[in-house]
Specification:
The chain has 3 helices and 5 strands. It is globular and about 40 Å long. Helix 1 packs antiparallel against helix 2 and helix 2 packs antiparallel against helix 3. The chain has a 5-stranded antiparallel sheet, covered by helices on one side. By secondary structure, it is an alpha+beta fold. It comes from Streptomyces sp. R21. One of its GO terms (molecular function) is protein serine/threonine kinase activity. This is ATP-binding protein. Pfam families: HATPase_c_2. InterPro entries: Anti-sigma-factor_SerPK, HATPase_C_sf, HATPase_dom.
Amino acid sequence: MVDARYGVSFTVGDHSARHLRRILRTYLHAWEMSELTDAAVLALTELIANVVRHVPDRRAALLMLRRPGGVRVEVTDTCSQPPSSTAVDELAEGGRGLLIVAAVTDRWGWHPQAGQAGQGGKTVWFECDVKGPAAHVPPRLTP
């Protein structure tokens, strides 16, 4: 059985989202939550794109958590600036990432991280729920 959590720290590159999407797809399939794949990989792509665009050192951490009835995905970065949507012009090419995350997930949010020597960061997270009879995922038993 696959662990109920996966975490990794990394420096984001222009192609990191592709690799992280593959990991998320693999875990969702192993957790028998494949129906969440489209929404979860789209939301993850948007969060990683925000790190690439807005975090100067591009350092981040990904945490995926299986929970009863769904998945929670967290992206923690080193920028203490709150996430924001800048989409005010419908013809603008950017600024819609968080609107997309809100549209395709069941819940999302963020919270600041306490850092060393006054340096902080933030964690942006989303949750996707399994719909229907497969919504109950039994907890993993550990010996």
